[in-house]
């Protein structure tokens, strides 16, 4: 689902329980040395509170399209 977060666009991915599981930020936040455009954050729900991971950055033109691929980053089981 595409939403706006502040001044930038975000694609939200939800798990089977309806909780947000990942966000794709469609910006580098003017910090190209720290974030690719786009970049992803996985959301961990430990203690029933959303905790955002460090950014998952991508080389230009190499961007995964599936939520399953994003989850593979958590387990190092790249698809």
How would you characterize this protein structure?
This protein is mainly beta and 79 residues long. Helix content is 11%, strand content 32%. The chain has one helix at 67-75, and strands at residues 2-5, 8-14, 20-25, 39-44, 51-52. It has a five-stranded antiparallel sheet, with helices on one face. The longest helix is centred in the C-terminal third of the chain and has 9 residues, at 67-75.
First-last Cα distance: 23 Å
Uncertain runs: none
Morphology call: globular
For the sheet with most strands, the description reads: 5 strands, antiparallel
If strands are numbered along the chain, what order do they take across the biggest sheet?
1-2-3-4-5
DSSP summary, beta strand count: 5
H/E element order: EEEEEH
Helicity, as a percent range: 10-25%
Coarse structural class: mainly beta
Task: Look at the structure and give the mean pLDDT.
Answer: 83
Radius of gyration: 12 Å
Strand content: 25-35%
Count the helices. How many? 1
Summarize the structure in short.
This protein has 79 residues and is mostly beta strands. The chain has one helix spanning 67-75; strands at 2-5, 8-14, 20-25, 39-44, 51-52. It contains one helix and five strands.
Highlighted features:
79 residues; single chain
List the helices and strands and how they pair.
Elements: E1 2-5, E2 8-14, E3 20-25, E4 39-44, E5 51-52, H1 67-75
